[in-house]
Amino acid sequence: MEILRLHIQPFLRRNALKIGIISILAFIALRKDLSFNLNLNTPATPRQEAPAVPEKQVKVERYTEGPDQGPGFSSSLSATDRFDFSGAGGGRAQPTAFGRLADLNKATVEQYIERFGKVAKQEQEKFGIPAAIILANALLHSQAGEALWAKEGRNNHFLIPCTPDWQGEQKNYDGRCLRQYHNAWTSFRDHSFFITTGTYSPLQQIPSSDIKGWAEALEQKGFSAEPELARQLLAVIDRYGLE
């Protein structure tokens, strides 16, 4: 044993560096092998699939069913059918004077006709203007006396504007100067003068029986800013039986 120790110790001293390097390499190799074996024996973790992204849901617009639209109602309308382009810029068109008048309480309109029917007939007899035209004109432009300018103290039943020769009272409504009268009868009489003199004097040549002719002449002469004045006047006459 002594002889073996004497031989081994010098060998170890001479080769200590080599032995150290070999030991380190062996340790590293052993560690890698151990890690490799462990990985082989460990059950593989199942790969987690990324959660499926749900398809984007497209919201489908549906029109609310009205009282006249049953389950079979189809909403497959064209763009122009779905929207109202009747007014400027896509807005709704303003109702005509006839439309506003038709929306009034029926009793209000009937009371107005009863109140001024005789006045219209008297003006026809004196000036030759059809009583139906006078009354229809008053109904349209005063809204059966409900318009602000036709109320008591103003009494303009025909929207007659101020003119340079007008010497009576006047008042502005939304930037528009209108004549004012002490009573409704004066308004009817001034209307008769207004549409039988000056620019409107040719209307005196139209027979009082020609209601359509009078309506069209008033429109052509620009009596009112209302669109299709003749059609509206004739519609009022027909609706309320003014003939």
Automatic annotation (TrEMBL):
Domain Mannosyl-glycoprotein endo-beta-N-acetylglucosamidase-like: 118-241
The keyword Hydrolase appears for this protein: yes
Pfam families linked to this entry: Glucosaminidase
One Gene Ontology term of the molecular function aspect: amidase activity
Keyword set, alphabetical order: Hydrolase
Listed name of the protein: Mannosyl-glycoprotein endo-beta-N-acetylglucosamidase-like domain-containing protein
